[in-house]
Amino acid sequence: xxxxxxxxxxxxxxxxxxxxxxxxxxxxxxxxxxxxxxxxxxxxxxxxxxxxxxxxxxxxxxxxxxxxxxxxxxxxxxxxxxxxxxxxxxxxxxxxxxxxxxxxxxxxxxxxxxxxxxxxxxxxxxxxxxxxxxxxxxxxxxxxxxxxxxxxxxxxxxxxxxxxxxxxxxxxxxxxxxxxxxxxxxxxxxxxxxxxxxxxxxxxxxxxxxxxxxxxxxxxxxxxxxxxxxxxxxxxxxxxxxxxxxxxxxxxxxxxxxxxxxxxxxxxxxxxxxxxxxxxxxxxxxxxxxxxxxxxxxxxxxxxxxxxxxxxxxxxxxxxxxxxxxx
Length: 327
Description:
single chain, 6-stranded mixed sheet, 14 helices, 45% helix
């Protein structure tokens, strides 16, 4: 029994150490291929859990018999603990940067927000326990698989998230990312629920994917969804004249194009989460490393190179349409 316990303790120490050490490196290592991209994106998101794993590993090693292996494990656990604490060490700077960015709305922007809405705000941007449990998910009303178009025989549907109480609310149109190649409107479900609970009807829409369907098919699908909201918004408790577009990556690109290429007065704002704005520049200067193979993605989306169709790349770039007075 004692031998089995020692063996179990040894495996536990080595396993904790290697897992924490390996995963913590991805907090600072850029992904070189799409295979490693989930680790590079996910490791910072679970950094607090990794700190716990590394701390447990370090304690196990410190209270074990001193051998060359235990010294190596202590070093790995210590380095893993430092790496996994990196996001928390950046936190205060990040919060200050975000607060400074909000001042672009005006130094007194908070005074323009009704008190009832301010009471719904979080007390501060980051609460430590959120990193362990996630942001608590409020109860909202959800409608699934609402069909809104069928271009070229491709059925498109949307998910609708409504506040807990019936009423009439502004609308948030969310568009998922996925390099224009993949994804579905059920993505980012927790985000959509959280936003709906703040007093918005969230419309999570679908669009056709490249390379089977190339630009401007995706933009046409977003416009079809907006047309559906204009016609049926009241049925789903939405004020169709008060919409904000929200997108991630490829979805952010489509959100900007929908708002800027053909300005529509009902679109009052756009939130761009890491969406591309200048596609030709993105093609000519891909990131290094480039885990998603940017040039291949753009060729699938547009069906050509910038040198072959510069007009198409300009037409598909939100930067082309930037002008005074846009949301």
